[in-house]
Amino acid sequence: MAALACVTALTFTVSTSAGTGRLAPGASTAGAGPIALSHTSAHGPCMIRGAREVQMSEGIPTSTGYTRSTGTVRALTLMIDFSDAPGEGDARDRFREFFPQTREWFRTSSYGRLDYRPETPIPSWLRMPKSFREYGIERGAPFEPGYRALVQDLVAAADPKVDFRAYDLLNVLVTPNAGLSALDTVLSVTFAGNPEAPRADGIPVANASFVYSRQDDGSGSYDRTGYRVLPHENGHVFGLPDLYTADGGGAVGHWDIMSEDWGANNDFLGWHKWKLGWLDAAQVHCAASTGTTEYTLTPLPLAGGSKLVFLPLDGRTGYAVELRTRAGNDEAVCRPGVLIYKVDAEVDTGMGPVTVYDSRRDSGGCTRAPNVHAELSDAPFTPGETFRDAGRGITIEVAGVGTGAAGAGAGVEGGYRVRVTRE
Ligand SMILES: [Zn+2]
C-alpha cells in the first residue's frame, strides 16, 4: 500500500500552476507590491533574468503583480460548495485542515518575516449557483471559461459580506467531495499575477489559490502533512514557479515545497527565500569574481548567519549553494550537507527551472519516507567532498565544519565551511 501510494503521488504529485500573465509595469492589484528583496550592488551579477519572457521565472527580482511576501499578508479564505457536492459538516473544519499550520509554516520558513493572517469573514459553506460539473473544472483547466465563471460567482456571493480590498490573496477551499480524489488527479491550482481576473470592489482577484480534495496518501500522515498543498499553492501567488516536471520530482526532489508537497514537511530552497525577501543582503554571497573564497554556511532552516552562496554563470543562470539539515520545516533530511543546484531564469514553471546535483548518483537515496523522492534525498555534499564544473573552472569544496556558536560544538549546527574557486 505504501509503495502504491508513493508511485501514485509521484505521478500525480503536487498541483498545477497557471499564471496567465502579469500586470503591466506600474499597474497595481490587490495586495501587490514590491517584493522586499534585500541586495547591494555586489549582488548585481547574481540577479539573473531570463532573456525572454517566461510565465513564472526564477529570475530576481520577481516581476510585479504577485502578492507581497513580507510583512503582514491577509489571506481571504472562503469555503465553497455546490448543489451536486454539498459541503459536509462544518465549513470551519475544512478551514482547520489548513490553519494554523499554513500560517506557522510561513512564519518558520520566513524566519518571522511573513506574518500570514488567514481570515474567514464567511465561516460557512458558500454555495455556488452552478453545479460543480457545470464549471467544467479538471486538471490543467485554463482560467477561461470555467474559472472565470467560478470567480465571478464566488465574488458575487461573497461581496455583500466581504471587502476584497482588505486582502492580499484569496484562498478557495473547495468542499473535498467535489471532483475526484487527489490520488486520482490533483485539481488544486493557483492563478497568480492575473490582471484579467474578474474584479471585486474595484480590484482584480489577481492572486487566487484553489484547493480540492485531500492529499491523503494512505500512509497515515495526512493529519500532519495534508495541509502542505496550500503553502505550495500560495508559493505561486508570491511568484514562485513549479519545480516538478512532467516526469515528477526528479529535478529537485524533496528540497523545496514547490517540487514536492506531499508527505513529510520540507522547506523552500535558499534561492526562493532570497527571492521572497526573507534573507538579508549579508546572508547572500554573490561569488562572481575569480579566485578562492571561503564561506561558512549555517543551516538554512534556522535563523541567522550566511545562508546562500550564488555563482552566476551568465546573465540568466547560476549555481546555488546552501546547507540543509533536519530542522525547522525540513523534517525529512536524512543526510545533512551542502546542497548544490543550478537555477535557470529562462526556464518556465514546470519545465525544470532548478536542477539539484546529486553527490551520490544512483545510490537509491537515504530515505524511504512516503512521497519523498528517494534518489535525491542524499544529494548534499559532506565535508571532504567537492563539486566540479571543469568546463567553467569552478570547484565547490566542503572544507569542514564551522567553528559554530559558543557551545554548539563541532557539528552541522555550527555550520559548514565551503571553499569556492573560480579560475
Ligand atoms: Zn504548483
Automatic annotation (TrEMBL):
<keyword id="KW-0645">Protease</keyword>
<keyword id="KW-0482">Metalloprotease</keyword>
<keyword id="KW-0732">Signal</keyword>
<feature type="signal peptide">
    <location>
        <begin position="1"/>
        <end position="18"/>
    </location>
</feature>
<dbReference type="GO" id="GO:0006508">
    <property type="term" value="P:proteolysis"/>
</dbReference>
<dbReference type="InterPro" id="IPR008757">
    <property type="entry name" value="Peptidase_M6-like_domain"/>
</dbReference>
<protein>
    <submittedName>
        <fullName>M6 family metalloprotease domain-containing protein</fullName>
    </submittedName>
</protein>
<keyword id="KW-0378">Hydrolase</keyword>
<dbReference type="GO" id="GO:0008237">
    <property type="term" value="F:metallopeptidase activity"/>
</dbReference>
